[in-house]
Design a protein that fits this description.
Blueprint lengths: L9 E4 L2 H11 L5 H23 L4 E2 L8 H6 L4 E4 L3 E8 L5 E3 L10 E7 L5 E8 L6 E3 L6 H9 L13 E2 L15 H4 L2 H7 L9 H7 L12 E8 L8 E9 L6 E9 L11 E5 L5 E6 L6 E7 L4 E7 L4 E7 L1
Parallel strand pairs: 4-6, 9-17
Antiparallel strand pairs: 1-7, 2-3, 3-4, 5-8, 6-7, 10-11, 11-12, 12-15, 13-14, 13-16, 16-17
Helix pairs in contact: 1-2
Amino acid sequence: MYTPAQTLTFTMPISLQAHQVAQQFWRLHPNQQKAKQVYLNTIAVQTVQTYLQWFGIATDLESGDSWNPALQALADTADLVIKDQGKLECRPVLPNQEVCLVPAEVWQERIGYVAVQLNAELTEATLLGFLPQAGQLEVPLQSLQSLDRLLEVCNETAPSIANLSQVAVHLSQWLQNTIDTGWQTLDALFPSSQLAFVMRGSSSEASASETNASEAGASETGAIAYISRGKRLNLGSATHPVEVVLLVEFLPLESNPWEITVKLCPQQEQSVLPTDVEVMILDEQGVSVMQAQSRSTEMIQLKFLGSPGERFGVKVMSEFNSVTEEFCV
């Protein structure tokens, strides 16, 4: 058995409740090898959750793939969602193992990995250490970092949108019909039969023909109309795609703040948004000032005002992934 020399570890008893939850999942899998894998993963996840809760770190146990029986059957995953941070992978380590096994299917979309060693009787679990990233199936236990680093990562403050590495989308450039990389006009994203639904809720109540005029920044009468652009997003995983369309619209006014509308729409072939997709409007410090969550919703729409020069962010999240777009009015 691996014995850490100078690395901070933590040992705790495995509760009866943790075993009861693991047994519930175990019974759902007729394949005994898969059932054992799910059982051990469930114990490891609950152990890490308990440890983090003692330090006041908020988790969302039921949002992880490891808590979804269908996804348990498809992948060897032991993820724990850390609120506002991402997914932490909690890998069980059996007695006498000198390595932590990290399957390739969990090498992405993780803020780190925790090795959890279980004793033969499954009465105790020891958190051995932390791994910031994975790129190999077998990770030597000697290469693990201290649990102090785990706590630092889980407590790190999300970066403000002013410090994001990506280049901000300048909405004013859309007035010159400039299209940023990844963004498209609405008629390129949706069939004409769907445009009226997509434009629903805009103050201009534009028809399909008016929408085409708004792409150039003005209607045929010379009145300023809504400027609209959209971007396809995939918020899913390799085994569970979650595809949506993010729309940003604005009404540029010379003497007043611009009226900005952020919409989240389903893809063409879908009539409603995926369940539990969330949209957040972030201020310049990355703090959420508006948010909404789908519940088999046709469309999410958030409206606010922005003055020229102001910056804001739009964060779209699912249980698998998140995307943040930065904008400058």
